[in-house]
Amino acid sequence: MPHISSTLAVPSASDVPQHVAIIMDGNGRWATHRHMPRVAGHGRGVEAVRNIVEACAVRGVRYLTLFAFSSENWRRPADEVTFLMRLFAAALRREVVRMHANGIRLRVVGELTAFSPRIQRLIRDAEAKTQHNTGMTVTIAANYGGRWDILQATRRMLAASPAMAPADITEEALTPFLQMSFAPEPDLFIRTGGEQRISNFLLWQLAYTELYFTDTYWPDFDAAALDLAFASYRQRERRFGRTSAQVTNGVAVESPVAN
Q1: Is 187 a catalytic residue?
Q2: CB atoms within 10 A of CB 55
Q3: What is d(CA 41, CA 30) in angstroms, rounded to the nearest whole number?
Q4: What pLDDT does residue 245 have?
Q5: Could you confirm whether 79 is annotated as catalytic?
Q6: What is the pTM of this model?
């Protein structure tokens, strides 16, 4: 029998992507172009997060995943990393109150043991405070890398089933152990700041996601810029292996059978 991709449950067509994943790039360059210290751009970036969370919620997005700090970002200058950690802690205290008041659930994914005990506690408290909220789910990817995600999922899967045979190692078996197992695969990926790569973000989950790149720096990415990304998304034809005629006629995906 031919291999079947785990993206078998084709999502229904919608004018609004149900899951949006964003790499929030360009904070430092935004500040540099204004003759300001790079950290000033990160501060403005938090304001942009607040605005985009609100805009996505109003537009009916169900899941918003934000790449806040990659596993590679530890290589940045020490003073910038220190500022980012302080900003992260402050945002966890301040922004979670706003999210909770609006029925938004917060989740944080990544190798969190690398953070200070204080930040780890703030993460646990924020997730616990919002865990019963039924509105949009906002996920922060912090100290996250796509390759790490796949490796840690594989290790956890094999630890749970030490006697697993090679033939039993399938996409369906691995998926529950991935960091984003609670969410559907992203419909739309957005990267601000002009770079056109996914930078080790959600490597497994972005297999069939529509990609959108913009030169706009993250601090300037507002509701109007989000609408431009959504307009581009609406022009895409999401086939998931089908032909255009099948999509137009609403043909469902069926599992191929062996002859």
Answers
A1: no
A2: 19
A3: 6
A4: 52
A5: no
A6: 0.87
